[in-house]
Structure formats: C-alpha cells, structure tokens
Amino acid sequence: MNWKANWYIRAMIGLAAIAAATAIGTWHGSDPGLFVLCAVLAVAANTWKIWIPNVDGNVSAGFVFLLIAMGQFGWSETVAIAALSGIVQALFRKKTRPKPIQVAFNTSLVTVVGAATHVIALWAVPDGSPFAILSRLALASVILFVLNSLAVSFLLYLMGKASLRDTMRQIQFWVAPYYVTGGVVAAAVVESNLLSAAWTGLPLLPVMAFAHLYRRHVTEMASRAPSVNK
Predict the structure, then answer these.
(1) Could you say which of 41, 86, 90, 196 would form a disulfide bridge with 103 (CB–CB 3.0 to 4.6 Å)?
(2) Where do the domains of the chain lie, and which CATH numbers do they carry?
(3) Are the beta carbons of 138 and 179 closer than 8 angstroms?
(4) What is the pLDDT along the chain (230 residues), one digit of tens a residue?
(5) Which residues, other chains included, contact 89 with Cβ-Cβ below 8 Å and sequence gap of 6+?
(6) How much is the pTM?
C-alpha cells in the first residue's frame, strides 16, 4: 500500500474516532429499548450481502436501518448504529479473513459517512418541513450513496486498483437504484411506526423483500450486460 492510501485510511479512522467520542459525549437516548432493537435488526440486515458485478465489493441491506435510525433517533444513535454496521460488514461473509486495518477502515468509513449524512440531511430538511421524514430520508439515501461511493472509489484510486471515473460509473449503475429505493423503504417503516414492533421482527420483512428483489435484479442485469463499460 502506498503512502497516499495509508494516510487516507488513517485520516478516515481519525475522523471516525472524533465522531464516536462526540457521540458518546452528547448521548441522550430517549428510547433505549427501541434503539437496542433497531441495532439488533441492523446487525441482522448487514449480514445480507449482494455482490456487485465488475466491482470488488458488495452492498448489504443494513443501510436501510441506518436510514431508519436517522429518521427515528438523534445523531448519537445514528453514529452508534453506523459503527456497529461497519463492524458487521467488515467481519461477516468475507471471502478472505480481513486484516485489522481493513476492519478499522470499513468501520470508520461507515461511521463517518453515516454521521455526515445525518447532519446534512437534517440541515437540508429540518423538522416541520412538509413531508419531513420522507423528504429527509430520500435525500439521505442519495447523500449516503454519494459519500460512500466517493470514499470507496477514492481509496481504490489511491491504491492504483482502478480509475476514479470507472469505479464510480460501475457503482452508480449497480447501486444507485438500491439506495434510492432503500430510502423509500426506510421512510415507510418510520412513518408507519413499524419499528415499534421491532421485537416481532416485522420491520425486517419489507427490508428482506427489498433485498431479495434487488438481488434478482442484479442477477438478471449481470447476465444481460456483464459490464457497463462495453
């Protein structure tokens, strides 16, 4: 790994540490029980991975619960669920055993992107706005996708594995619809107060259906168009 990629990884880990320390210092959870249930569901959803064709990576359904956290809880809880999601993504169902630095970077990336997305979306769509939850989570899904895609693509570029433009094109083609639709699913769960029935597992049902349909879509599209660069 060259020095540029190494410093980029260190910077991401540093930002995540600052976000985590701030979240702990400002924690004021209003519903600890509901938060724990949401965190458990987020862990389960992050184990459902969909491999992206032509890109060395995958997406999970866990980001839907990160969006749900943004609509249901405060910034500190969102950071906590983002960090937990990053750990699960880094450790579960990997083709090879991840190195500690890979786990640290993945956890940090999800934490930083989740924290930044919450702040930007809340600033752009404050409480009291028309259709606040739907508008905020729809916007948050786009922001989450853009920041996450840029962060991953930039690392691959620094490591010399792929050009920034080509990687972004591949991710946009395969993943953008997944994030946007996930934002709608998250908004529906929050608006219907379905998370309050988290102990029954009901909030998992729309997320599972969403992930299953997207997996089928990716499989069909991959068989028809192996590469968007062709």
Answers:
(1) 90
(2) 3-224 (1.10.1760.20)
(3) no
(4) 688 899 999 999 999 999 999 999 999 877 888 888 889 888 888 887 776 666 556 677 788 889 999 998 999 999 999 999 999 988 886 667 888 998 999 999 999 999 999 999 999 998 887 788 888 998 999 999 889 888 888 888 888 876 767 766 666 666 777 787 888 888 888 888 776 665 555 555 566 666 656 656 556 655 665 544 44
(5) 46, 49, 60, 62, 106, 110
(6) 0.82
